[in-house]
Amino acid sequence: MSVQPTHPSPDPAAGAAVKAADRAHVFHSWSAQGLIDPLAIAGADGSYFWDYEGNRYLDFSCQLVNTNIGHQHPKVVAAIQEQAAKMCTIAPGFAVDVRSEAARLVAERTPGDLDKIFFTNGGAEAVENAVRMARLHTGRSKVLSAYRSYHGATAAAINLTGDPRRWPSDTASAGVVHFWAPFLYRSPFHAENEAQECERALRHLEDTIAYEGPSGIAAIILETIPGTAGIMVPPPGYLAGVREICDRYGIVFILDEVMAGFGRTGHWFAADHFGVTPDLLTFAKGVNSGYVPLGGVAISAEIAATFDQRPYPGGLTYSGHPLACASAIATINAMAEEGIVENAAAIGENVIGPALREIAERHPSVGEVRGLGVFWALDLVKDKETREPLVPYNASGPANQPMADFAAACKRGGLWPFVNMNRTHVVPPCTVTESEAKEGLAILDEALNAADAHTA
Fold first, then answer.
1. Residue 1: pLDDT above 50?
2. For 373-435, where are the E strands, in sequence order?
3. Measured distance CA(347)–CA(354) in Å, rounded
4. pLDDT at 212 over 70
5. For residue 412, what are the contacts with CB-CB under 8 A and spacing of at least 6?
6. CA–CA distance from 134 to each of 82, 166, 173, 221, 296 (Å)?
C-alpha cells in the first residue's frame, strides 16, 4: 500500500541543494539560526522517513507526535487529491459537505455532549479560541494552567504554557495563573503513593483557586495527559476531582487533547481513560496526522448556547479548510476501518510497555517508565536513588551533552528519537507494527548505553 519507495536511492547532490536553499531562506522554529544543521529529508512512508544520503530512520518521534497514521497513508493522500480536484477552498461562512462531515465524525467520538466543532488551523489556535469562549461564557478573565504543560506558541497559548518556552513571552501573562498538577515521580507534594498525590494535588488546586478568587476564574486548562512536558498519566480520581471543583465554582474545564487525542493513548481521546467530560476539548495533530494543517475546539451544548443569539467574536480565513477536512474524514475513517486505535492500545500493552520496563531494569540511566498506548516516556537520571535528572532543567550547550550523546546514538542506529530535557519519549505512529516497535526498542536499548556513561 506504499505510495513511495521505502528503500530510496541516495542522491547527495539533491540533498545538498535542498540544504543550501534551507539555510539561505528558511527561518526555523525554536532555534538559534546560526547553530542548527537541519537534515534534508527526501521522503517518508509508514513508520519511516529517509534522507538524501540513503539513511532511513524509524520515526519514534512521529515528527511532532502527530503522524498518528504514519507517513503517506494512501487513503488520506487520495482523499486530498480528490478534494483538490473538486474544490480546493471556500470561505468558512458556507456550508460544505466535507466540513460538515469532518465535524460530525469528530463530534461522534468526543465524550459527552461536545457536539459542536469550531475548526482552526492547529492546536495553538484551538487553545486560543477555547480560552476566549470560556471567558465570554463566564464573564471572567483568569485562566489556570499547570507548570508542566505546553499549549502552543500564540499569545494566550504560550502564556498558558508552563515550560521554559513561555519565558520570553511572559510580558502578556495577565490573567494566567500556574499551579502544580500531579506527578508522583517528582512530586511537588512529597506524596508517597498515587492516592496521596491525587489528594494533595486537588487540595493545592483548591487553595490556588481560593487565593486567586473563584469568582474571577474563567477556566482551568489541562493536557489530559501532558505531552512534551513528560507524558505524566494523572493518578486515578484526579481529573474527576478537577471536574467536580470546576462544577462547584462555575469554572469552565478545558482539556487539551492536541497531542493525546485521536488514538495516541489507545482510545480516541485520552479523556476516555478517565470517564471525564470537559466543557471544551481542543484537538489537532492526530485528527488528520498533520497532512494538512487542522485543529479545533469541541464545544459543549451549554457553551455553544451562549452564542446562539450573541455573535462569537472569532474566526479564521481557513477555518474548516476543505483539503484539511477531507484529510480528516479519510484519517478518521481509516482509523476506524483498520483498527488503528486498537492497534495503538495493543502495541502499548503487549510490546512497548513490557519492553520499556525490561529496558529500565538493565540501564542505570532510566529512572521511570510511564505511558499508555503509543505515548511513553523514559525519565533519564544520573542516579536512580536520588532521581537527579540526567541533565539540568532546560539545559543547553555542554550541560546537555548526555542527552545529545544519547540522541546521536539513536540516529546512528536508524532511530529518530523524541528528546526533551532529561526525557526520551517513545511515540511511534499508532499504525506501528509489532516488528517495527521491537526494531525501534532494540535500537533504543543499545543507545541508552550512551546515557548510562553519564550516570553516577
1. no
2. 375-383, 388-389, 415-416, 418-420, 423-426
3. 10
4. yes
5. 447
6. 37, 22, 17, 10, 15
Residues 60/417, Cβ–Cβ less than 8 Å: yes
Q: Answer yes or no: are the C-beta atoms of 126 and 255 closer than 8 Å.
A: no
| Cβ(338)–Cβ(429) below 8 Å | no
Say which residue the cell 537534515 belongs to.
39
The backbone torsions φ and ψ at residue 367, rounded to the nearest 5 degrees and listed phi first, read -85, -45
Calpha distance 424→428 (Å, rounded):
12
List the 176-179 sheet strands across, edge first. Answer: 116-120, 295-299, 280-283, 252-256, 217-223, 142-146, 176-179
Note whether 364 and 435 are within 8 A (CB): no
Classify 403 as helix, strand or coil.
helix
Q: Please give the grid coordinates belonging to residue 133.
A: 469562549
CA distance 158 to 173: 9
Tens digits of residue pLDDT in 355-394: 999 999 999 999 999 999 999 999 999 999 999 999 999 9
DSSP 167: G
- Kindly indicate the confidence band of residue 7, based on its pLDDT and cuts at 50, 70 and 90: low
> What does DSSP assign to residue 26?
P
453 vs 456: CA distance, rounded Å: 9
What pLDDT digit, counting tens, does each position of 222-272 carry?
A: 999 999 999 999 999 999 999 999 999 999 999 999 999 999 999 999 999
| SS3 annotation, 222-282 | EECCCCCCCCCCCCCCHHHHHHHHHHHHCCEEEEECCCCCCCCCCCCCHHHHCCCCCCEEE
If we measure between CA atoms, which residue out of 162, 32, 102 comes closest to residue 296?
Answer: 102
Note the pLDDT tens digit of each residue in 292-328: 999 999 999 999 999 999 999 999 999 999 999 999 9
In the block, cell 484519517 appears at: 331
* Cα distance between residue 173 and residue 155, in whole Å: 9
139: left (phi over 0), alpha (psi -120 to 50) or beta: left
